[in-house]
Amino acid sequence: MKQPYTAPTREQSWVYFNGKVCQYQDVHLGLMTHALHYGTGVFEGIRAYWSAETSQLYAFRMAEHFKRMSDNAKILRMKLPVPIEQLCEITVELLRKNAWQEDVYVRPIVFKGDEVIGVRLHDLKDSFGIYTAAMGNYVELGGLRCMVSSWRRIDDNAAPARAKITGIYVNGALAKSEALENGYDEAIFLNQDGHVCEGSAENIFIVRDGAFITPPETENILEGITRETLIELVEKEMGKKVVQRRIDRSELYIAEEVFFCGTGAQVAPVVEIDRRMIGDGKTGPMTAQLQKLYLDICKGAAPKYSAWLTPIY
Ligand code: PMP
Fold first, then answer.
1. Is 72 in the pocket of ligand 1 (CB under 6 A)?
2. Whose CA is nearest to atom 5 of ligand 1?
3. Which of 76, 197, 256, 309 is 20 to 30 Å from 95 by CA-CA measure?
4. Is the pTM of the predicted complex or chain greater than 0.90?
C-alpha cells in the first residue's frame, strides 16, 4: 500500500521553535543533539479538519493532546515551555499563519536539545517545536489486511509504552515495515504476555457477540485519545459499554469486527488478519457507524460534540 505524503513544504511553512515563530527551513539542529541519538523526545499528533461547507478548520481535542504531552514529558524529566492554554493559542496562530484549507496534522515535539554525549535524562536542556503539515488518511479507511507482528510491543518495564516517546517508535517502525514488506497494510502487536496490544500507531478494538472490547491501559498500549473518544461515543451514542479486558490472539480471528483507531488512523476497519477473513471481509456495521460518527464530529457536523473542536478561523 502506498504510504501518504506528509512532508511540510519547507520554503513556505511557518513553525514554532524555542519561543519563536519562524520558517521551517530556518530551524537548524546540531548533529550531536541528544534526542537524535538517544530517542529522548516526546511528541504529539493532533489533527485539524477542514470543512468546505463551513469554510472552517477544526482542531480536534487539542488541549487533551497537550495535557498528555505534558504528562509524558514528566516521565522523561522534561517540562513544556508554557502552559497548555498557551500551547493551544500558539497552535491556532500557526494554523492561521499557514492558512490551511485542507486536513492538517499538527506535530508538537519536546526533546533533549543539548549537544552532548551521554545516556541520561537529567541535566539536559529541553527544546520545543511545532510544525504543521497537510495530511489525508494515514491508513486506508476501507478495510485493512493485517498480520500479527513477530515483534512484541515494548513493555512498560523496559520503556514507558503508554507515552509518545520518540525512541519507542523504533518498535512500531520494525512492525510496520515487516507488515508492509510482507504484503500487509498494518501490523498488530502482541505484548510480552502474548495478549493483543495495538497496531504500529493505532489502538485496537474488536467486536464479539455484539460487544466492543479493547485492551486496558495496563496492557502496554499507548493511551490513545481517539480510543478514549470512541469509548465515550460507543456508550453515549450506541448505548453499549466497551469492555476493557485482555484479548487473546485467537479472538482476533473469530471477532465479528475489528478496527484500529488513532489521530492518524481515525477509525480504520480491519478486514483480514493472518489470512483469515474478519466477519464477511467487509467493514462491519458497528465499525461503519462509529467511523461515520467520529468523522462527522471531527468535521464539525455534530454540534453536540463541538466542545471537542477548536475553530481556527
Ligand atoms: N498507539 C500508538 C503507538 C500511537 O502512536 C498512536 C497515535 N498517537 C495511538 C496508539 C493512538 O493514539 P491517539 O488516538 O491519541 O492518536
1. no
2. 201
3. 76
4. yes
